[in-house]
Design a protein that fits this description.
Layout lengths: L3 E4 L4 E4 L5 H8 L4 E2 L18 E5 L5 E4 L5 H7 L8 E8 L1 E2 L3 E8 L4 H11 L9 E10 L4 E10 L9 H7 L3 E4 L2 E3 L1 H5 L5 H7 L5 E9 L25 E9 L5 H22 L23 H14 L4 H12 L12
Antiparallel strand pairs: 1-2, 2-6, 3-7, 4-5, 4-6, 8-10, 8-11, 8-12, 9-10, 9-13, 13-14
Helix pairs in contact: 3-4, 8-9
GO molecular function: flavin adenine dinucleotide binding; oxidoreductase activity
Organism: Phaeosphaeria nodorum (strain SN15 / ATCC MYA-4574 / FGSC 10173)
Protein name: FAD-binding PCMH-type domain-containing protein
């Protein structure tokens, strides 16, 4: 279940759902090939990828291949509709040539905040759009210093053109506390060990660590494959969207209720500001979303209808009742066995 098999002639790598990204990167690095996958090698591949084919065992016991031509609705539903349509036993990913990357992690002093935020805005300027670049930027609260420290993980797939790019702006901002920028393989970056310096700022605060992350939606290869996320084909969401995430680590269980309330309040305030500025988007990234957030509702009515139909066609799916409940609360109607809508 964790096998990795490369078909060089077809440019396809077949991966078992039990594999982790590090194993896949390590298998492809010798061929200077890569794929669209997770940036952390310890993360499992299942539920964290876009592929060209899924081998799926349905609740009936039938094994099908879901792709853009065979069972396309199931193919789309599996990429964002949660994991209740069947058991995926094999995933196939399209590879592409990938020589060593430019990138790494930089930690800055807290005097650089305004300059860094200006660089984020510059990066998202459509005129500066760079399909080979990505970053995850964040502020981490250090309870010992009683201050936020800024950090960024950034990568560029074409080291020869980094100079003059928006990422170069981040790399030049000073003062820096830590810098691991280098040219290296995808597998090396995915398996990068956290240095003692980074651990100090990420994990070793006295009682509380709060991290606010801003992540640019990465560019994807042009594709006619169906998706369930509510994005129209060719919409180029990567040119306009940023994901904002909030992570909290703490020691005292008694703080849970209060921090939960504070987290929800902050998320609501961010949403309201985005609405007032005219930049709000209902899409939520499922792997980062809170349990109280309406991820499926952000896909839009049309996608919810497709999810409901796929759930019914695969039969025995636990998601059927979840989608039905969501439709009742979000759209005001539900599917009945006779096919009528209420």
């Amino acid at each position: 279940m964790d096998s990795v098999q490369l078909d060089q002639s077809a440019g396809i790598v077949s991966v078992g759902p039990g594999a982790r990204w590090q194993k896949v990167y390590d298998a492809l690095d010798p061929y200077q090939l890569s794929f669209q996958g997770g940036r952390n090698g310890k993360v499992g591949v299942a539920g964290f990828l876009l592929g060209v084919n899924f081998e799926v065992v349905l609740s009936s016991g039938v094994i099908v291949n879901a792709n853009s031509k065979s069972h396309p609705d199931l193919f789309a539903a599996l990429k964002g509709g949660q994991n209740n349509f069947g058991v995926v036993t094999k995933l196939q990913l399209r590879t592409f040539p990938q020589p060593p990357l430019w990138g790494g992690v930089v930690i800055y002093s807290n005097s650089t905040d305004e300059e860094l935020l200006d660089a984020v805005v510059d990066f998202k300027n459509p005129a500066r759009f760079d399909p080979y670049a990505m970053f995850t930027f964040g502020f981490v609260y250090d309870a010992t210093l009683r201050a936020f420290t800024a950090n960024i993980a950034m990568y560029h797939a074409r080291p020869s053109i980094v100079n003059g790019s928006a990422l170069e702006t981040f790399a030049k901002i000073q003062p820096q506390i830590f810098n691991s920028i280098r040219i290296d393989s995808p597998g090396s970056f995915a398996g990068e060990k956290i240095s003692p310096v980074v651990k100090q700022y990420y994990y070793l605060s006295a009682n509380l660590t709060v991290a606010i992350s801003i992540q640019s939606v990465p560019a994807t290869a042009p594709s006619s494959n169906p998706n369930i996320l509510g994005f129209a084909a060719g919409s180029e969401a990567e040119k306009r969207l940023l994901n904002i995430g909030l992570a909290i680590q703490y020691e005292d269980p008694a703080a849970t209720a209060g921090l939960d309330i504070a987290t929800k309040r902050l998320a609501a305030q961010i949403d309201q500001i985005a609405i007032e500025e005219g930049v709000y988007d209902a899409h939520l990234y499922m792997n980062y979303a809170g349990s109280w957030q309406n991820v499926l509702g952000g896909y839009g009515q049309e996608s919810l209808v497709v999810l409901r139909e796929v759930s019914s066609s695969t039969s025995g799916s636990m998601l059927g009742s979840e989608i039905n409940d969501l439709m009742q609360s979000t759209l005001g109607w539900s599917s009945r066995p006779d096919g009528e809508r209420a």
